[in-house]
Amino acid sequence: MLQLKNIYKSYITGGSRQIALDGINLKFRESEFVTVLGPSGSGKTTFLNIIGGLERCDKGDLIINGKSTKEFTDSNWDFYRNNNIGFIFKNYNLIPHLSILENVTIAVSFNGLSKKEKQEKAIEALNRVGIKDYMRKTSQYLTKDEMQRVAIARALVNNPKIILADEPTGNLDSKSTIEIMNLIKEIFKDKLVILITQNPGIAKRYATRMITFRDGEVIEDTNPLKEDLHQKEISLKRTHMKIYMAIKLAIRDISNKKLRMFFYVLISSIGIMGIALIVALLQGFNKQISGYENDTLANYPIVINKVYTNYSIHNTSQNSKQNQNDLKNSKLNTKNDIIYSYNSSQNSTEHINQVNKDYIDYIKQMDKDLVSEISYESQINMNILREDEDGKVSILDTSTINLSSYPKDYGQETYLEKNYELLYGYYHTNKNEVVLYVDEKYRLDTNFLNELGIDVKK
Ligand code: ADP
Ligand code: MG
Questions:
Q1: Which of 64, 80, 87, 458 is deepest in the core (most CB within 10 A)?
Q2: Prediction pTM value
Q3: Which of 46, 57, 197 to mutate to test the pocket of ligand 1 (most atoms within 8 A of CB)?
Q4: CATH number for the domain including 94?
Q5: Which range of residues forms the domain containing residue 70?
Q6: Please, what's the b/e burial string for 345-362 (b: 16 or more CB within 10 A of its CB; e: otherwise)?
């Protein structure tokens, strides 16, 4: 099913040519567990990246189903990767601002399933790797071993025929290493697994075939394939990622910058503009990121809002103990139906962008080749009245409560139903209704609660 024919790859660094692969000839079976050994710099990662379609060789040919890939277009490669390859990396490569479930769900974004079906697949994969809790939290709450389990679920979810793992246990202690290796072996038992490891003991224990690299060449292959067996076909047709998925990812990115609101805009004056540039970021994006992440991010919108608020201090790793505690608390909260308050301005910095006519003119004359689409959004101030218990009516200061709109609905489910869990009440049905969003720790901003006239208990 997969064959490397005289693959040659070199890099030019600082004026000199470095040969990474020097004529590799290998054939793989439909189902085998191949471990790849070799000193650092011997070409193992380059080899794996070429098989996975993350890099192209200089000379030679990668043969898939007996067909040459020499004439492959970028979209041929994309399809090959998305539908046939599962990647597992040493550094997990989870997208930090997405939940664990979303990290897995984005891997099934390419084949026209409904959102529910995709989630079911993702949950099933997460169950198989033993991750049941924490699914809606981001990966910062996980141990290294758990992160690698999520990455395995992500590799598993499309049921790929080939699993490529680059030192998947390189960051794990020996106990976790055994657990993760057992899991990979068990879960992908009928697949072609090609796994790089620095650990000869591990290589021997799990492999049905061991390949050793040195200086860009294969110096040992314990179980080479000679005959041309009838092999299972690798699919090479095309699909498209839905634009909606790209937009949703961006929405999640913004919502992570807290308060879980769409287009984080403070509506403090009339006519505030938010500008979204949807820029093709494919080029220059870190190659180590796996194929489908790369593709998903290709249409990642850059959003420029009037106000940008940075809450990064919440999410630093030093705070992860704190986060663990918060997480435990937040679990309690749901049981008791308690929403907690927090002061969002405490750990944030704010930047006001000057979005004026000059700036918009500048955006409009940008090189169209760099941008696949530009959209503009303007919003107006809302007058909201509040009635206190004693009947006193006053105007809300909308600059302290972050009002925002959310996008039109796609398909049958509404935007809210798709992206949020209902904690209390009902999904709104009328235009004059308001939805309160809490963040993933079930919190609302203290200023916001005060502005609504709700006394916050200390
Ligand atoms: P391994 O994974 O076995 O450590 P690699 O495949 O990463 O080896 O690297 C093989 C050789 O190619 C090394 O000499 C390395 O420096 C070089 N190399 C790999 N990737 C690049 C790159 N992107 N740019 C320049 N040189 C590279
Ligand atoms: Mg390497």
A1: 87
A2: 0.57
A3: 46
A4: 3.40.50.300
A5: 2-239
A6: eebeeeeeeebeeeeeee
